[in-house]
Amino acid sequence: MPFWIWLVVIGIVISAYMTIRTNREEKELELKEAEQEGNIYLERMIEEKEKRKQVSSEG
């Protein structure tokens, strides 16, 4: 086979590898972001609950 065909095949393999690697990294990043947002949401819920307890105990 000609040399350029090997170069094309190697390029396709490298491109596929990079695509898979990037996809995994993006999924991990999205998971971390979702977890952080969930933690922030839970903290806000706890704070709101505490505020409501204070208001109800004062009233």
Task: Give short descriptive properties of this protein.
59 residues, Sporulation YhaL family protein, transmembrane helix, mainly alpha, membrane, 95% helix, coiled coil
Total count of strands: 0
Order of helices and strands: H
Portion of residues within helices: over 70%
Major pleated sheet: none
Flag low-confidence runs.
none
- Termini separation: 87 Å
Secondary-structure map with pairings?
Layout (H helix, E strand, L loop, with lengths): L2 H56 L1
Concise account of the structure shown:
Keywords: Coiled coil, Membrane, Transmembrane, Transmembrane helix. By secondary structure, this protein is mainly α.
Architecture overview:
It comes from Perspicuibacillus lycopersici. The chain crosses the membrane at residues 6-23. This is Sporulation YhaL family protein. The protein has 59 residues and is mainly alpha-helical. The protein is 95% helix and 0% strand. It contains 1 helix and no strands. The chain has one helix at residues 3-58. The longest helix is centred in the middle third of the chain and has 56 residues, at 3-58. It is rod-shaped and about 85 Å long. 0% of the residues are buried. The model has no long low-confidence stretch (mean pLDDT 93).
